[in-house]
Design the sequence.
C-alpha cells in the first residue's frame, strides 16, 4: 500500500471516506432525499465491485498468461534438450520451487543457453551439409543448381552431426581420389598428345574447361561425366596411337623392303631413322614427342610412294621369282598348276596397272604361305608314295634280276646284286601293307580337307586302286603260268619217255613284258616323278583326273608301267606250243 501511495501521491489527499463526506455535504446542500442517496450509494458500490472484478479478471488473465509462458518455456526447454540430444530434465526447476515469475526467471537462463547452443549447432549442421551437398554436386556435375541445404531442427544431436561429418570425410576422400584420377588422365592425355603431335589444350578443353590450367580455374571438374569423357579420350588417343604406330611400322617395313630391293645406300636410309627406329617397338615404348605425328607419317608415305614408282621396273622380275617359288612348291608337292597362265596374268596386271605392287606381292606371298601349308599337309602321304614307288622299282628290278640266268655267275658285282635282291624281297613283301596304309591316310586326308588328293593331277586313290587291280591280275597270271609250266613239264616228261629229250621254251619268260611298278619309272625334266600310266596302247586302262577309268585315253601317268592281260596271253600263245592232250 505504501508503494502504491508513493506511485500515486494523490491518493494520500483523496480517500473514499473524504470523498463520501464531500458527497454528503453536497447532498445536504442540494437537499437530496434518502432514497436518491441510497440509490447513488448502491451505484457507487456496484461500480466499485465492477472495478475490483475487472482488476481480478485482469490479474487472473495475467497469471494464466504467465503459467502458459512457463509451460511453453518448459516445453521449449524439453524440445531443445531433445533436439540437441541432451539429458532430459536438466535445468528445469521444480513447480513448487517459487512463484511463477521466479520459475520463469529460473528457466530463462537455461532456455537462453540452449537457444544459443541450438543456433551454433544449426550453423555446424549447415556448414557440414553445405560441404556435403557441394561435393555431391561436384561428383554429379550439378553443383551450380544446388541451393542451401535444409536442416532438420528436430534432430540436432552430436551423434547425427558426427554421422554427417563422417559422410563428409568419406566424400572428401572420394574427391581426392577423383582429383587424382583426373590429374592422372590429364597427364596421360598430355603425353599422348605430345607423341601424336595433337594440341593438348584444345583436346582437354573439349572434355571440360576447368581442366585447362591456362584458363586460371583452380577447381577442376571431378564429375562422373568428366571422368567418363577423360577415359574415353584416353582410349581414343591410345587407339589413334596404335593405328598410327601400326601404320608407321608398316611403312617402315615397306621402306626397309624397298631399300633392300633397290639397294639404297646407308646415307639415304639415315634420313628416315626417326621412322624405322620404332619398327619393332610396342605402343608403350613410343614416348618421344612427335614420334607419331601426321606429318611424319605423310613424309614416310611420300617416300614409300616414290620408291614404289622406282620399283615398278623390277616388278616383273620379283613377281616371276615368286611364281617360280610357287611352282617349285607345287612341283615338290606333286600338285598340278598352270604356271604359264599364272605368269601371263601377272604380266597383264603389271602392264595394265590394275593392281598395286604391294597388293600383288602380298597376294603372291599369301599363295606361297597357303601352298607351303598344303604341301606340309601332303608331306606324310607323299613320303609314303615315295616309299611305295621305291618299293615298286625294287620289285621291277627284282623281277628282271630273277629272269637273269647269269645272276649266280661269279661276275664282278654279283654279290652286291645278291644283297640288293635280299633287301628288295623284304621291301616287296611290305608293299601290300604300305598300299593299305597309304589308302587309309589318303582317305583321312580327303575327309579332313573335303577334296580329292591328286598326284600330278590324277586322284591318288584311283591310281592305288588300279595298281591293286593290276597287281592282282599279275598274281593271277603268275598262278596260271605256274600251272601251265607244271602242265608243260608233265607233257615234256611223257614225250621224253616216248621220243627222247626235246628242248622246250621257258614259260617263265612269258611274264617278262608285264611289270607293275610305281610312280617314277621315268623322271621328268625337273627331277620330279611323273604320273602312273600303262605303256601299252592296245586297250590299256588309265585313270583320268576325276578318278574314272578311261579306256579311250591310253596315256596315263608315265611312271605306272603295266601290260594288259590280253597282251600277256597273246605273248604266251605266240611263244609256247599248244598243250596237247595226254
Sequence:
Amino acid at each position: 500500500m505504501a508503494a502504491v501511495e508513493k506511485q500515486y501521491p494523490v491518493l494520500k489527499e483523496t480517500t473514499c471516506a473524504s470523498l463520501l463526506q464531500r458527497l454528503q455535504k453536497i447532498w445536504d446542500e442540494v437537499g437530496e432525499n434518502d432514497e436518491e442517496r441510497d440509490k447513488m450509494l448502491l451505484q457507487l458500490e456496484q461500480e466499485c465491485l465492477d472495478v475490483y472484478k475487472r482488476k481480478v479478471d485482469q490479474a487472473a488473465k495475467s497469471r494464466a498468461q504467465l503459467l502458459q509462458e512457463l509451460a511453453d518455456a518448459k516445453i521449449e526447454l524439453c524440445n531443445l534438450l531433445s533436439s540437441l540430444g541432451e539429458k532430459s530434465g536438466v535445468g528445469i526447476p521444480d513447480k513448487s520451487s517459487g512463484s511463477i515469475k521466479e520459475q520463469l526467471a529460473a528457466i530463462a537462463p537455461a532456455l537462453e543457453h540452449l537457444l544459443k547452443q541450438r543456433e551454433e549447432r544449426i550453423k555446424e549442421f549447415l556448414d557440414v551439409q553445405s560441404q556435403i551437398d557441394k561435393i555431391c554436386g561436384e561428383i554429379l556435375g550439378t553443383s551450380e543448381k544446388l541451393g542451401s541445404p535444409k536442416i532438420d531442427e528436430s534432430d540436432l544431436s552430436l551423434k547425427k552431426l558426427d554421422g554427417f561429418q563422417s559422410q563428409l570425410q568419406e566424400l572428401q576422400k572420394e574427391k581426392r581420389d577423383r582429383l587424382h584420377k583426373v590429374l592422372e588422365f590429364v597427364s596421360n592425355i598430355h603425353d599422348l598428345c605430345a607423341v601424336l603431335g595433337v594440341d593438348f589444350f584444345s583436346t582437354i578443353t573439349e572434355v571440360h574447361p576447368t581442366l585447362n590450367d591456362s584458363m586460371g580455374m583452380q577447381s577442376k571438374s571431378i564429375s562422373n561425366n568428366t571422368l567418363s569423357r577423360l577415359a574415353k579420350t584416353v582410349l581414343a588417343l591410345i587407339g589413334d596411337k596404335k593405328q598410327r604406330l601400326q601404320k608407321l611400322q608398316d611403312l617402315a617395313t615397306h621402306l626397309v623392303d624397298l631399300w633392300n630391293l633397290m639397294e639404297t645406300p646407308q646415307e639415304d636410309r639415315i634420313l628416315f631413322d626417326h621412322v624405322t627406329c620404332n619398327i619393332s617397338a610396342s605402343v608403350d615404348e613410343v614416348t618421344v614427342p612427335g614420334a607419331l605425328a601426321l606429318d611424319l607419317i605423310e613424309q614416310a608415305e611420300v617416300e614409300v610412294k616414290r620408291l614404289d614408282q622406282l620399283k615398278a621396273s623390277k616388278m616383273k622380275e620379283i613377281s616371276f621369282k615368286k611364281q617360280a617359288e610357287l611352282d617349285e612348291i607345287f612341283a615338290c608337292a606333286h600338285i598340278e598348276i598352270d604356271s604359264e597362265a599364272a605368269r601371263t596374268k601377272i604380266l597383264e596386271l603389271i602392264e595394265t596397272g590394275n593392281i598395286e605392287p604391294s597388293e600383288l606381292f602380298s597376294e603372291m606371298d599369301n599363295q606361297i604361305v597357303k601352298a607351303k601349308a598344303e604341301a606340309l599337309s601332303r608331306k606324310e602321304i607323299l613320303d609314303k608314295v615315295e616309299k611305295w614307288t621305291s618299293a615298286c622299282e625294287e620289285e621291277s628290278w627284282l623281277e628282271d634280276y630273277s629272269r637273269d640266268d647269269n645272276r649266280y655267275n661269279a661276275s664282278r658285282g654279283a654279290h652286291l646284286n645278291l644283297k640288293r635282291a635280299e633287301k628288295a624281297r623284304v621291301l616287296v613283301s611290305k608293299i601290300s601293307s604300305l598300299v593299305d596304309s597309304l589308302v587309309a591316310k589318303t582317305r583321312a586326308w580327303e575327309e579332313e580337307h573335303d577334296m580329292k588328293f591328286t598326284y600330278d593331277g590324277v586322284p591318288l586313290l584311283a591310281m592305288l586302286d588300279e595298281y591293286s587291280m593290276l597287281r592282282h591280275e599279275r598274281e593271277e597270271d603268275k598262278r596260271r603260268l605256274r600251272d601251265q609250266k607244271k602242265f608243260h613239264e608233265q607233257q615234256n616228261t611223257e614225250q621224253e619217255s616216248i621220243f627222247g629229250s626235246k628242248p622246250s621254251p621257258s614259260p617263265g619268260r612269258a611274264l617278262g613284258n608285264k611289270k607293275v611298278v610305281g610312280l617314277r619309272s621315268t623322271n621328268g625334266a625337273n627331277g620330279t616323278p611323273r604320273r602312273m600310266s600303262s605303256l601299252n596302247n592296245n586297250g590299256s586302262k588309265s585313270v583320268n583326273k576325276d578318278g574314272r577309268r578311261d579306256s579311250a585315253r591310253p596315256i596315263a601317268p608315265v611312271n605306272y608301267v603295266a601290260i594288259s592281260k590280253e597282251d600277256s596271253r597273246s605273248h604266251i600263245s605266240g611263244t609256247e606250243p599248244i598243250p596237247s592232250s595226254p
Notes: The two ends are 190 Å apart (CA to CA). Residues 379-405+414-494+508-575 form one domain. Strands lie at 454-455, 458-459.
